[in-house]
Amino acid sequence: MEWVNETLVREFVFLGFSSLAGLQRLLFVVFLLVYLFTLGTNAIIIFTIVLDRALHTPMYFFLAVLSCSETCYTFVIVPKMLVDLLAQKKTISFLGCAIQMFTFLFLGCSHSFLLAAMGYDRYVAICDPLRYMVLMGRGVCVGLVAAACFCGFAVAQIITSMVFRLPFHSSNQLHHFFCDISPVLKVASHHTLFSQIVIITLCALVLVIPLLLILVSYIHIISAILQFPSTLGRYKAFSTCASHLIVVIVHYGCASFIYLRIKSNYSSSQDALISVSYTILTPLFNPVVYSLRNKEFKSALQRVVGRTISLPQH
C-alpha cells in the first residue's frame, strides 16, 4: 500500500485492473478496437445527419447531439484508461481527477435528461403528429438540449465540489480505472453523513426524474398506439420507439446499479466491471441500436456516400 501520511494527496493511483495484470495488453487491444469503432460509428452518424437534409428533423437532431455526447463521454475516460493499461505507474493528478469527475458527471447527467427529451419527442410524434413540426421546432429542440446541459452542469458542479472539498491525506489508491464518485469517496480521510446523503440524493434525482418523464411519455404513447386501427401502423409506431427504450433500459440499469447504493456487498472489482459496460460498451451499443439498424438512416447514409463518391468525377 502507498500511503501519504500527514500531507495532502497530490495524485491518485488507479488499481482498477491490477488483478488482471496478465491480461492488460489483451484488454488494451480489445478496448482500443471498441473505442475506435465507437468513434467511427458516431462520426458517421453525425456527418450523415448534418449532410442529408432528409434527416433534418427533431428526432435526428437529438440523435446527433446524443452521438456527440457519447464521443465526448468516452474521450474523457477511455484514452487515459488505454494509456494506463500499458503503463507501470497508473496515476492521475488531484486536479486532473477533479476535472475528469466533473466532465464525466456533466456528460452522464446531461445524457439522462437528453434521453427524457427524446422520449418527449417520440410522444409528440405519435400522439400529436399533425402539430409535430410546430411543437418540436428548432427553438424547442435547442432549448431542451440546453436545459439538459444546464441540469448536468449544475449537478456535476455540486457533486464534484462536495467530493474534492473533503480532506485527502491517507490512502491515494483508487480501486477503479477512472475518478468515479464512490472510489474517490472511499479514500477521503473522512466525510460526513450529510455530504453522502446529498450526493446520493442528487444521483437519485438525476436518474429518477428523467425516468419518470420517460415513463409518463410512454404511457401516453402506448395508449395512443393501441388505438391505431391497423396492425402495420402499430408495428411501425412501436419500432420507432424500440431503439430509445433499449438504450433507456441499458443506461438506467447500469447507472442505477452503480449510483443508487449507499452500502452494498459488491466488491470494487465488480463495480469496475459494471463501469466498463457503461463507459465502453454502452457508447458502442447506442449508435448501432439507434441508427445502423434504421432503414431511413441507412438510406440517407447511402445517399451521402453516393454524393461523396460522385464529387471527384465532376
Automatic annotation (TrEMBL):
<keyword id="KW-0552">Olfaction</keyword>
<feature type="transmembrane region" description="Helical">
    <location>
        <begin position="98"/>
        <end position="120"/>
    </location>
</feature>
<keyword id="KW-0807">Transducer</keyword>
<keyword id="KW-0812">Transmembrane</keyword>
<feature type="transmembrane region" description="Helical">
    <location>
        <begin position="193"/>
        <end position="226"/>
    </location>
</feature>
<protein>
    <submittedName>
        <fullName>Olfactory receptor 10K2</fullName>
    </submittedName>
</protein>
<keyword id="KW-0716">Sensory transduction</keyword>
<comment type="function">
    <text>Putative odorant or sperm cell receptor.</text>
</comment>
<feature type="transmembrane region" description="Helical">
    <location>
        <begin position="238"/>
        <end position="260"/>
    </location>
</feature>
<dbReference type="InterPro" id="IPR000276">
    <property type="entry name" value="GPCR_Rhodpsn"/>
</dbReference>
<feature type="domain" description="G-protein coupled receptors family 1 profile">
    <location>
        <begin position="41"/>
        <end position="290"/>
    </location>
</feature>
<feature type="transmembrane region" description="Helical">
    <location>
        <begin position="58"/>
        <end position="78"/>
    </location>
</feature>
<keyword id="KW-0297">G-protein coupled receptor</keyword>
<dbReference type="InterPro" id="IPR017452">
    <property type="entry name" value="GPCR_Rhodpsn_7TM"/>
</dbReference>
<feature type="transmembrane region" description="Helical">
    <location>
        <begin position="140"/>
        <end position="164"/>
    </location>
</feature>
<dbReference type="InterPro" id="IPR000725">
    <property type="entry name" value="Olfact_rcpt"/>
</dbReference>
<feature type="transmembrane region" description="Helical">
    <location>
        <begin position="26"/>
        <end position="51"/>
    </location>
</feature>
<keyword id="KW-0675">Receptor</keyword>
<keyword id="KW-0472">Membrane</keyword>
<keyword id="KW-1133">Transmembrane helix</keyword>
<dbReference type="Pfam" id="PF13853">
    <property type="entry name" value="7tm_4"/>
</dbReference>
<keyword id="KW-1003">Cell membrane</keyword>
<feature type="transmembrane region" description="Helical">
    <location>
        <begin position="272"/>
        <end position="292"/>
    </location>
</feature>
